[in-house]
Fold each of these.
Amino acid sequence: MTHISPSRRSVLISGASIAGPALAFWLNRYGFAVTVVEKASALRGGGYPIDVRGTALDVVRRMGILPRLRDAHIDLRRLTFLDGDGGKVASVDPHALTGGVAGRDLEVRRGDLASALHAAVRDDVEFLFDDSIDTLDQTSGHGVDVTFRGGGTRTFDMVVGADGLHSRTREFLFGPEEQFHRYLGYCFAGFTMRNTFGLSHELMMWNTPGRAAALYAVGDNDDVHAFLNFARPEPPFGAFRNPDAQRDLVAEVFADAGWEVPGMLAALRDADDLFFDGVSQIRMPRWSSGRVALVGDAAYAPSFLTGQGSSLALVGAYMLAGSLADRDHAAGFAAYEDHTREFVTLNQDQVGEGDATLFPTTARALEWRNEMLRNLSAMPPTSGEGRSAHSALTLPEFTPEGLPEGTPMR
């Protein structure tokens, strides 16, 4: 294999959430000149809880940020499930349900992970906040000509879209999202509200067939994360870019709901941090075109139902950077896909359409789930090994001098 010196190769990464800064870290490690552009004016703090499990734990350990993330670990202690009248069905250990491993897997606020990633790389790469890619042009054959929304024009050897489920980079390259969008049959709304419930380090979830409401207290503070999830055969495309339509749709679906849902709907009306979307995956036959590639949710969003979005982003960033360390863009992108796709597919396949265990859509499925939860609550806690999909990839050791021929799968 011909040695490719990365010393002068420049890469633009679109997106500064999880995959983007992780990729910037590893590309910088291999000698690339890295620029990260982010449409937000600053890093987003706080945010909903996310998981780092399995192979992804090895990535953050190798980055040196594992101690910081351990300090930020939420330590969720209890999941309590309620019936339609608000009566208790069962309380279970979180790891028994998620396939996580107590004492090893991490759960942190999304903003805490993003901040740790940014701190690890901010002094070594260029960050452009409050800007975004306006156009991409690869026709010169000698790089990617990029026009920024802010008006500047620059040329990079490569561009990587790490800009999430609704990636504009992907749309530039491959066309409309719908062709890669696998809708899983649910919609959800998330927002924060006052913790007037006395909850601490716990989640409470109310269910009726096709509907779920959850309150998640990540600590002892004054706010809780509120989630309203509901089954819907077709995605409500008209609501995705209209917050008022989102509020109206959720209020309509939960109009007759009991428990704390009426108060949640009132808080939803005034929430300034509402996040609404369909529960979906991105499944693509290819993750690159020419000198432009995709990483994380932009290429292979697994949906929050798997709990693996951030972990796939971290692993994908590591594998993409390492694959480019001693290869040109074409061979590097091909190796990235070849060595990472099986791991991605295993994790995406953890959930199918309309069959999420926590969100049954029929009375019979709900009773089956509740019986499962009662049985789980009667079992003693176990350290376990976690789900095999979470650790199905063994990270190779990448060096600029030479790369392994293959990536072993466990």
Note: The radius of gyration is 22 Å.
Amino acid sequence: MNALGTIDRPLTHDPLKQAPMTPSTTSEQPSGSAVTDFTTPGANISRQNRTREMQLIPEALARAHMHERMREVDAERQAMRLIAARRMQRRAERVSLRARRALAMAVMN
């Protein structure tokens, strides 16, 4: 396998130095192989923006993940407060009922 620029092992990984993927009629050079003098106008700018965006993707993903975790924690905290409030309300109702019974027993005697 001495062919230059195969799909598995391209001659270069730089997209600026690669020719566009067009079907070729000659069999001496595979389509899409590297050509040294081929450059797309404006490719540097779009490639630079794409690289910058690609570098920011993990940061945005981490930010979204942390935001989701914060929402989950807040929801869990609110649920725990609600459970504690219901528990205290039941306890207060039992104490109130005991006080009423004690008052009724005191009045009856």
Note: The chain has a mean pLDDT of 79.
Amino acid sequence: MEALNKAWCANFWSHTIYDWGDVVPAVGYGDGISDAKCVVSGLQMDYRRFQSQAQLACYTNERDAIREYDATTPITTNLMGTFKDLDYFEWAKEMDVVSWDNYPGMDTPPSFTAMCHDLMRGIGGNKPFMLMEQTPNQQNWFPFCKVKQPGEVRKLSWQAVAHGADTVRFFQMKQSLGGCERFHGAVIAHDGTEESRVFKETAALGEELDRIGRRIMGSRIESRVAIMFDWQSYWSLEGCVGPTTGFNYPNEVHRFYRALWRRNVPVDMIASTTPLARLSQYDLAIAPALITVLPGVAETLEAYVADGGTFITGYMAGIHDEHDLVVPGGYPGKLRRLMGVWVEEIDALAPGETIEVHGGTVDAKGEIVASIIHREGAERLATYGGDEFYAGHSALTVNAYGKGKAYFVGTPLDETGMSAFMAPIIKELDLKSLDTPEDVSLSVRYGDGGTRYAFLINNSAADKRLCLSEFNGGTELLTGTVINDLIELKPYGVDVIALR
């Protein structure tokens, strides 16, 4: 009990526990402030861990019951991308194959959907995953449920394959006549006909997958960049009462991911507790908003950078330990020596408020928070502008540490700024990427015998034309066309090109 009171800082507001019966979950009739926040933040973190582990125990109990009668059939359950309540890295360890449901909203950027696919591949150790569910037309749970444009579902399906899926499945086959999902899209709608646009598009997609899918199955994604997606930081960051309510953890991960996706740089999503032996396989590791630094993580990151790795983190990083207690001695806590900075204060910016960031190739705006940084060995890359008292303070820094470098991003940069910040790092590390027009993405899967499968996807409703001489001589598998300089993509068009 003494250890519990210490871990939860229970003397705050007289919450010291004297009897185990005094422990109440972090809910409204206890110390819960909302579904995400609690007066005793350590209680909230432990309750979230308990919920994730308890539901995982339910899954493993059901799995083991099946295994008594079936020793070989793979067992899975459908996950949901960046779903907050369950630590999917722990769940994936108990699943024979990872599967998930992809339901992007009408305003979801294609880069965010790509990140979710990479996350689902990442939790399973970068093995192929299953696209368990997607809708062949409208979704059901948004305020406004748009119909999918012609070709859009095909594009979404091939995007999943491009990022590591070995299956493409749908919910649902036939539309229900009643119940709360009766307007959810289906292959066979309420009209019961095979003459509908959706049925014909789904059948055509199935024919494509059947024709070339077996060639692609089992091929892999090869990445030299890793991004840490940390459910502990997810819970902690969004559970903070201050300095701002402006953070959405998946959006902060996407802020960094998008800059790489736009340059067609492949990314693996990893846990923050990834062992050094595996982390060292990557040239670049990024830990967005890593507010919770679990035991051993700081030491692993120091060893990784000292041996030549490049590491990026920044605002809100390193503040908490595993109990959601602030690490004393100044931000970013156990990462302070590695990053070569001391963050004295964190200024919160109101919704719509921004702060200028200037330096080198970066001419950008930051939002949500601004870290007021003192350099302790790090080099300044950019400074804050504007009329705040900390104008002229460092906004972006880099610290030489052993054979490697550690970059600190003091404020959430806008898309242009993050792209400009990442560009010289991508160039310095020679992270090979091919330029494609706006809204056209390129992903590559590697098969046996040196075969590569390049997926060019038009994520827009406009025609796109591009020339990629690197693909000359390759065969577009869906049409049998041999590539010769010019590639034309129709709205939501997809090319799958076999290369050697």
Note: The radius of gyration is 24 Å.
Amino acid sequence: MLLVVFLNPFPHTTFLDQLFFYAAILPMIAMARNKFDGFYYNTPLLYPFALFLFWATISVIFALDKPDSARDLYSHLIRYLIFYLVVINLFGTKKRLLLLAACVVLSEFIFAVGALILYYGILGHDIVSRLFLNGSKSIAPDVIPFGFMLGFFMAVWLFKICQNKFQRTFLAVAITVLIISTIATQSRGAILALCIAFPLQLWGHKKVLSLLMVAIILIIALSPMQNRIQAKLFEDNARRGLILYSIEVIKDYPISGTGFSIDTFRNPEFIDKETYSSRIPKKYRKIPFDRPHNMFLSMATRTGLVGMLMYAGLFTVSLFICCQLILYGKDLFIQSLSRCCLALLTMFLANGVLQVMTTHFIDMVQFIIFSLLTIIWKIDKNSPGLPHETDSGWKTNG
């Protein structure tokens, strides 16, 4: 399962990913023969997940493209629910959780270093050009920041609790590389998410937060990113057109959506582009209506408004758990990781409302975040004693 997590950012590893994934769930099948003795599933997200899965299944029954919707239901939801259940059972202790976090950081760090060397060093692109690697949707410039920021926030958390000098040095290098890589993509959504989420993680360390935020702002100001912000921040007609187009599709399929398939939205066999584009202002009609650039609009087109609300409920419950553990966690380890999970959820939401969210790479990032939060909730639940002081220092006993 660690290898499944490690391979997530790397393209063209589907065979290995599938191999390791199904090898990891074989022990769970063995446990099923023993009536799941010791198998943990009763988490705060159990009912939100069950409701969303139920409604997603309903959307498949009434889908415009039933076979494709059924395939995507398994590959984009059921498979990751299995991943989630396996991870929370395998990494349910502090030591194993640290191992999982280290795997995420190492994976994203290696990928970031490789991407920077390949794009700017080997391929020879100008340093001011946008980091863009061809060949896979998972490495599109608006997608890879999800992984970079996942590794970044996990590295910051590990740096706070780590005591070993060598490990802290590596984490400092990883933090630097990941932040540079995120900015190099010149993704406005990623920069916005970073600026919103980062203060949440370091809210108790205002001096350090101020210095790091100033450094990030200076890097952005001295990089080509400032041109994208100044030139296109309020002139994104493509995204506005997609929003209006998506709303028109939702009006025709408000309850169960077009089906769980991620491709029905752009398939002319089921969705007539001319019909829906004729309903929106003329200046938006010439843009390519590929997929909604918003996680909630995407879910609304696929599963209807009901499905979108259930999907939003997952994040509402998750945010509530984060706040509860930050305030009442039984030790600093729990409180600090809960704050990290809050930052990760905020990052995912802030960037997700501006991006296409229908890749396996992003699905994995999403369920890694849900898994981390569930594990820390489980650790807190099983920890004896009363809550300790709030998280206010760089070093903890974690």
Note: Residues 387-398 have pLDDT under 50 and may be disordered.
